Amino acid sequence: MEPPGHVRGMLLCHAGPHRLAFHAHEVASIASPSGHAAASARRAFHETEGSARVLVSASGGAVGVDALEIDAEPHRVLPAPPVTVRASGGSLQGFVMARGALWPLVGLADFERFLRGHPGEGA
């Protein structure tokens, strides 16, 4: 168990040129986009829809991403400003520094709900 304010086991994902991190334990399976009605993570950035992989939560929600890699190292979670948490529909949990870059850490089910309600292109 990690100390408070730390996370271990994430999926580091790309949505177009943007980065997102998800808790690995929230992902029940990883699938191809065919056969899944997944909301593309690109919607959050007002990018053109698309995805190469789909992260499926235990509740059945799905988010499409372009690329992903597993990161098992422990990382400190940096707090997110309340305004960004509100702007993300409550899905943003903080930020982590991994692989030399800052990654927004989002909850998979909350992010999927946010994307479904997001008025971006193709939504």
Automatic annotation (TrEMBL):
Top-level taxon of origin: Bacteria
UniProt-recorded name of the protein: Protein CrdC
Organism per entry: Myxococcus xanthus (strain DK1622)
Lineage start: Bacteria, Pseudomonadati, Myxococcota, Myxococcia, Myxococcales
